[in-house]
Amino acid sequence: MIDWIKIAESHVIRTFRKISYAWWGIDIQFYDEYDACKNYRTFFQNPVCSVIHSIPKGIKLCAQTYQKELKKCRKSQTPFFYQCFAGLQGFAVPVPVQQKYVGVMIGSGIRSLKDDDPIQKRYRETLMELGFDSMELDQCYRNMKTIDQHKKEYISDFVKHVAEDVAAFYEYLQEKNETTKKRLFLLEGNYKEKYRRIIGASPAIRQVFDTLELIERSESPVLIEGESGTGKELIAAAIHYNSPCKDKTFVIQNCSAFSDTLLNSELFGHEKGSFTGAVSDKKGLFEVADKGTLFLDEIGDMNIEIQAKLLRVLEDGSFYRVGGTEQKKAKVRIIAATNRSLKGLIEQGLFRKDLFYRINTIHLTLPPLRERREDILPLANYFLDYYAIARKEPRKEIGREVRELLLVYRWPGNVRELKNLMERLILLSGASEVIEITHIPKEILADAYNGLQTHNHATTSQTQRCPQYP
């Protein structure tokens, strides 16, 4: 997926935008394959467009123009000029990478009609009927450069070359990322490759990986907090397999999976006859994980008595098996995870404060999927690839309406829910090559609709500067 923001904000492209406006009065915008503007902060410089965007009706008309032209660009995938409702022209240049449409460069605000042109007068009258001030409009039009046909063709060729360079630059980055084994959010399989891939490049997930790199040489305890389904176990595995004890054992224990008695036995082991069913001696997970890593998931569900024994292991590495009298020793790195507030449990007297400080030496908070929405579509596509390979079936595509829905849905189950939904949609879509909105479960449709209303309300101010399309 092309990183339009990185490209749009690069020094070369910023210089190109400045030159385009200084020489010809043209604003350059970049839209991705989902019709989202990627440089809204520097959207309109020309005076007529700025005036039009000063009232909601003008924003709506401009959005309709862009929606129409972007749709046309996706279908034709060839450069073309268009006329907007204000009498200005623009051009759209699609950007293909390996014959796949990944976005479009748009140049807007080209004035090719003179003041005395009858067509220009008609556009001016239309704008006045919409409520725009005639004197302000006249002044704005006078301040704009007039571009003749010869210049238009020259500008169009120039922008096409820039679009080709953007595509070539992206292909170079893609090839470079492949060779350097780009880090990847751990989702499945072989943890021993360092951050085998990274799905998504949101600031929230980048912070997580920045922290992982900083702690690679450490063997200190780690506390991972995050909602259910955010990938805590997978991050724990990444920490272990990129640590000094990566060649030792990595053991996983869910603290909510056993009763208190059984959890005590699982962690510390037991002696024969220590309780009903203890027919032989058994090593605990601390002995199994000696010199390695023990991952304690849902540590907030561990009772106070076991917490006390865990604290002792963390402090001096010593413990006793259930029913045993011989002191055992183990050097184990603890990685703990929880989807509950440990500080809240401390206030309730359900979690030891001293244990919290001991395991919280290194702290990681995994972001919920709703806080890294730019990663949703890359993750969804990853799961499509994964299931296509696992099932040995042709890969399905995601329809446009489904992509829009995925972006506004709340994702209470986070990445795990997205993975399960993609598997479900592959089945529900049957023989169809494209997953369509009709395949989406009703409960998700209803929730996504509510999310869309919230999303639209929250982005109103941004929409006034750059049209975002459904």
Automatic annotation (TrEMBL):
GO terms for biological process: regulation of DNA-templated transcription. It comes from Candidatus Brocadia fulgida. SUPFAM superfamilies: P-loop containing nucleoside triphosphate hydrolases. InterPro entries: AAA+_ATPase, AAA_lid_NorR, P-loop_NTPase, PocR_dom, Sigma_54_int, Sigma_54_int_dom_ATP-bd_1, Sigma_54_int_dom_ATP-bd_2, Sigma_54_int_dom_CS. Residues 198-427 form the Sigma-54 factor interaction domain. This is Two-component response regulator. It comes from the Bacteria. Pfam families: AAA_lid_14, PocR, Sigma54_activat. GO terms for molecular function: ATP binding; DNA binding. The keyword Transcription regulation applies. PANTHER family: TRANSCRIPTIONAL REGULATORY PROTEIN. Keywords: ATP-binding, DNA-binding, Nucleotide-binding, Transcription, Transcription regulation.
